[in-house]
Design a protein that fits this description.
It is a single chain. The chain is mostly helical. The protein has one domain. The chain is about 55% helix and about 5% strand. The chain is built from eleven helices and three strands; from the N terminus they run αααβββαααααααα. The longest helix has 21 residues. Bound molecules: zinc ion. Zinc ion binds next to helix 4 and helix 6.
Amino acid sequence: MNFVYSKKKEILETLRRKLNEQSKNYLHSDLNLNSIIRDIEVTTKEMRLNCNFNQIQILYNSNRFSMYFNYKEQKSFILLKTPKDYIDVLKIWHEFGHAIHYQNMDNSLSFVFTKLHNLHNMEGIAILYQLLGNKYYNHPLDYKIYNMMWWAFVEFFSLFEWLNAIKQKNISDIFMRNLQFIFEKVPTYPCPIRYFNRGFKSFRYILGLFLALGISDYLHENPRISGEYIKEIMYSGGINKNNELIIKGYQNMVNS
Ligand SMILES: [Zn+2]
């Protein structure tokens, strides 16, 4: 956590730059829910990962995207709504990334190591799927990722500063100041205090993003081993720390 906080300036400057260079968030007319799921399946099979989409229970007509693994039934459930824009497309890739992660995990692992919801590896694989989606649709590798991720950094830095001030300062002011670092016109966004009880939820997305960027970078340099390498990371559930990849991913983000 201290490492990420020590890089606050570099990270917020990168976010500001990335958000300014992003273009429109439209949904290409060729894309619909079924075609997107097919694209994810094709990508997963190309990497020779375990890929049993018929075992994933898809639930439609929800107002959100999420994924749930039922341990009793050993089955994945994905809640999907009809995508309205490109960010929704990436959210679908994200949730399938979680489900594919479970299908490629060592199923002899005990509950604590497979129950990944609190660990960054889970989000890392899901965000990697967002990057794979961008690649599949020929967008730059990080296209729209930062529109989806800036809140995690602002929330993390704000909570970190608020706790270091021993809660004396007003967290809304701290939050607003951090938002002003990256946005000229500050968006309305709920103050992170409501997420505090979830235990720095933002932090797992931050490490997840760095991990996904670290893996992408490694695969770019070693294209022949892609599937094997990702499978190895998925197989060990939440055990791996992957520190080197995370540091590499951070450098990749601020230098790209
Ligand atoms: Zn996720």
